[in-house]
Amino acid sequence: MAVPGLEHQNGTASGSKGQPASDEVDGRGRRKPRVLLMGPRSAGKSSIRKVVFEGMAPSDTLFIERTNKSSLDDINSFLSMRMFDLPGGQLDPEQLNLSFEDTDAVIFVLDAQSTLHDMIRKLSVTMHKAYTANPGIQFEIFLHKVDGMSEDYRLDTLQNLRDRLTEELFDMSPQLESNMNVFYHLTSVFDTSIYEALSKVIQKLVPEQASLERLLDLLCSQCSIDKAFLFETSSKIYIATDSAPLDNQTYVICADYLDLVGDLTQLYECVDPLSLRDSRASSTRARH
């Protein structure tokens, strides 16, 4: 069965042949970037969505049910985009029935604490199919759930994944791996690594990225600022940053400030006078 919303666009869906549907374009009439979130069952795809885009506490992700059907998040902020969370079975080449032509990026979420041997083979087949349909597609591989692992073990696991996937792709075609846009990230929902990884993914989808970087460089030079970020405040994803080297600790400090500002904003939100009056009246009656 094809995943709803991921079939190749046609005249029926768009209202006129060759034109995207109205919910697939942003306020400026441009097609929204489309991102697929894929991976085996229990890899952590839904946890990432819940923590980053819905504000769920990481500790609560232990109770999330498995994804049994595809779901769509329409993200409308500085960058409007569509993110599809696909069930784990969709990574199985035997069940794969997707159209990658209009997909801008595929995020593969892999559990760093599981056995990756069989999964690497399935991953390479999926990547080959996607690249054949769309050579410009980005592949973002999240080696997830690395919290609790030592730094050396994380890097060894990542290097092993990179080497074996490169071999699989090379066996399919010697030129395949070198021509693909493949990026690797170590991630966890229990620290800021997942926010930083998603930030880097989304930055590649922003057409104005180069202009934003130049503007932030100008801001830093004119105002003597060490580092500047352009944040999407609700998710703590940064859409752009200046060209100075990124220090992880600087991002952590900025993310903590965003949490503080969010908490203070809730304290000082405007209250409807009528609601406040009704609340006071109810409180008065309760005392009597």
Automatic annotation (TrEMBL):
Region (Disordered): 1-39
GO cellular component: fungal-type vacuole membrane; Gtr1-Gtr2 GTPase complex; nucleus
Residue ranges, compositional bias (Polar residues): 9-19
InterPro entries according to UniProt: Gtr1_RagA (IPR006762), P-loop_NTPase (IPR027417)
GO biological process: cellular response to starvation; negative regulation of autophagy; positive regulation of TORC1 signaling
Any single Pfam family the record assigns to this protein: Gtr1_RagA
Keywords: GTP-binding, Nucleotide-binding
Single GO MF annotation: GTPase activity
PANTHER family to which the protein is assigned, alphabetical: GH16429P, RAS-RELATED GTP BINDING RAG/GTR YEAST
Record's function text: GTPase involved in activation of the TORC1 signaling pathway, which promotes growth and represses autophagy in nutrient-rich conditions.
Family named by the database record: Belongs to the GTR/RAG GTP-binding protein family.
Quaternary state and interactors: Component of the GSE complex.
Name of the protein: GTP-binding protein
Species in which this protein is naturally found: Rhodotorula graminis (strain WP1)
